[in-house]
Amino acid sequence: MAHHHRLDEQRGMNEAATTASGRVRSHRFSNRFAGLDPYTPADAFLEALGGVEPDGGSVDGPMLGDPGREKVADADAGIAFFGQFIDHEITFDPTSELERRNDPRGLRNFRTPALDLDSVYGGGSEVRPFLFDDRDGAKLLTGAAEPTPTDEGAPRAARFGATDLQRNRQGSALLTDPRNDENLVISQFQLAFVKFHNRVVDYLRSGGGHALLGDDEDVYDAAKRLVRWHYQWLVRHEFLPTVCDRSVLDDIEATGRSYFLQPDDPVSIPVEFAGAAYRYGHSQIRDRYTVNDDARDVQFFPGPAPENVDVLAGAMAGEDRPPAGVVEEETDRNLNGFGPVPEEVVIDWRYFFDHEPGADGSTAQPCRPIDTAMAPALMLLPFISHGPASLATRNLLRGKALGLPSGQAVAERMGIDPLDNDEIPLPGETTYGEYLRSVHRGAETEAPLWLYVLGEAAVQEDGHRLGAVGSRIVGEVVRGMIDADGRAYVNEDPEWTPTLPRPVSEGVDDRYRFADLLQFATGPAPDGLTLTAVDGDGSGDAPDTPEGDRTNGEAVLLEHAGSGPLSLGGYQFDYGEQTETVDALEEPVAPGERIVVYTGSGPASTDDVGARVVTFDREAAAIDDGGEPVVVRTPTGEVIAFGEYGG
What molecular functions are annotated in GO for this chain (predicted)? Predict the structure, then answer.
């Protein structure tokens, strides 16, 4: 079934919006180099440059990468998907067409040009009530969770919470932006940010972050602020230095932005960024990924395996669509989106971002380099129902439709020595200049801006990051969006640094990494409650255990190690096949206070227990054998703590 990225226009959306600081944000795109002549080769030329065609029993194309010799870059594989997440945050253009020229000033951007996570929060509960949990108004909804915290072999996300977004009965994710479900990795990224928000809520309420609540700030607003600020920090201090030339970023820091989103400009998205430079990330996508310990070599999109080029050739000959039966059994497992996430391909983020920064090497697989070679998976997109199925072709046609100048013209306008077409490498040990001569266009001296940015990265940075032109466009636009937002940390608190736990980086260095956010988001809810012991037989771990009375002596011992009051009402104690829920307590549990939860009625007198006592008044013990787990959950079902009876 075809999927279309469609969004109804919202009431109140007009030509410009205003941030809290008063800066105008345009819902139109802009053209920074409108004075340069557009580069407008024939559509047929661009379709051939970005497409593939049968070649005997094989398939060939000027930008088709070789799946048998896939190169790797320094960056972790997850950086490409984080870049995609940012793109969906700031741009959504469902109105432009590939087949005709589009005036950037007439195109509406259906996203706010700010790193404000509106794709996660959707304007709040009054605008998008389906995103929020009615059981706890400060939290966001996920799909149903069946966590297995004691299964150490499962991905971390599966051990401590939901493994999928909330979906309707037809399997469609309930999102502000449907594009964040177009592949499984970006879908899991969206889920990670939802869970990150919920973990921050718990951390603020009663965990170690209680002091992070601002004056007159409720828990939801404080959590949203902290989530946004940590996200912006990662964009500025981890993402940009990974994908851009650091010398260009240093120059932007020292002298300001020279071309894009300058201080007096309305904040809009330049088409040189959206239609060309920021599409560099497509070249970083691999054909196959290791997803978790048990799911390796998983294809990115469904379809013929990349090495089955004869089948792929037949697919391309069949009107750019795979004929029936080309999906082999081994390729049924893939990372295509727009549907429920299968249990066997839940993402283990260790394979996408390094989780052991102090060790040699990385736990993560690398991404592909930024170059002109596109993974075969992207040359036959499964969710395209109209127009070319090759992503490369679509990018080239879009650049022409937006009236973009050539890469050489932009470089010269920036005062950068441009690359000659014979310096722009293409796959197969050839160059763009040689390709032009092979199609009788040898006199051509210009290249499409998107192709130029890719080739420049390959020549100047060996594909590890963007080159001079690409780094300038991406660095200035992304930095400009952060600097223009009055609510961003750089404006509200310029000296601020990340304040949430660093479970990966702590003890290694002072950096806050992607892995810190993901580890915190996918772990137990950090409300400060810790399980210190499970007394499954009344042996005496619990205070004043009734002698010889296993039922009334069976208990779970906990301690509140957080910094804020904790309300235990509604917390669930899961004893395997039996679950008990704590009734509302008269007073919240204070920091440092101990809690003893008895399965039965507990001791005859609790005066000398020295702890808060909770009883379930069961008539039989709940723990039968040694090794049985006890899992403590929040009222919304999130895992807080767990332990096992030693027997």
Answer: heme binding; peroxidase activity
Q: Mapping DSSP to helix (H, G, I), strand (E, B) and coil, where does residue 561 land?
A: coil
Determine how β-strand 267-270 pairs with β-strand 298-299: unpaired
Asked whether 262 and 235 are in contact (CB, 8 A), the reply is no
Tokens encoding 276: 């060309």
Q: What is the DSSP letter of 448?
A: B
In DSSP notation, 86-114 reads: HHHHH----S--SSS---GGGPBPSS-SS
Q: State both tokens at 40.
A: 């407008």
Give DSSP secondary structure letters for 115-130.
Answer: SS-HHHHTT-TTT-GG
Specify whether the CB–CB gap between 374 and 64 falls below 8 A: yes
Asked if 470 contacts 277 with a C-beta cutoff of 8 angstroms, the reply is yes
Residue 108 pairs in a beta bridge with 28
The angle, 0 to 180 degrees and rounded to 10, between the axes of the packed helices 184-205 and 514-521 is 70
CA distance 205 to 220: 10
612 forms bridges with which residues in the sheet? 595
Q: What's the farthest any 2 CA atoms get from each other in the chain?
A: 96
Q: How far apart are CA 306 and CA 304, in angstroms?
A: 6
Three-state SS annotation for 360-398: CCCCCCECCCCCCCECHHHHCCCCCCCCCCCHHHHHHHH
* Secondary structure letter of residue 367 according to DSSP: P
Determine which helix (DSSP H) or strand (DSSP E) holds 516, and give its type and residue range.
helix 514-521
Residue 236 DSSP class: I
The single-letter DSSP state of residue 375 is: P
* Residue of 158, 155, 153, 154 whose CA lies nearest to 143: 158
Exposure on the CB side of residue 272, measured as CA atoms within 13 A:
31
Question: Whole-model pTM?
Answer: 0.89
pLDDT-above-90 percentage for the chain: 62
Contacting residues for 1 by C-beta, under 8 A, at least 6 apart: none
Does residue 160 contact residue 503 with C-beta atoms inside 8 Å? no
| C-alpha distances out from residue 109 to 31, 93, 112, 483, Å | 13, 5, 7, 20
**Domains of the chain, with CATH numbers?**
47-92+109-163+175-287+335-492 (1.10.640.10), 529-644 (2.60.40.1260)
* 131 φ, ψ (degrees, to nearest 5): -85, -15
Question: Of 409, 454, 414, nearest to 431 (Cα)?
Answer: 454
* Residues 369-422: tens digit of each pLDDT: 999 999 888 887 776 777 888 899 999 999 999 999 999 999 999 999 999 999
| Length of the chain as a residue count | 647
Q: Beta 629-633 vs 579-581: how paired, if at all?
A: unpaired
C-alpha distances out from residue 160 to 97, 136, 467, 604, Å: 44, 18, 41, 36
C-alpha distances out from residue 464 to 72, 413, 629, Å: 8, 25, 46
Summarize pLDDT for 567-597 with one digit per residue, the tens. Answer: 999 999 998 878 999 999 889 999 999 999 9
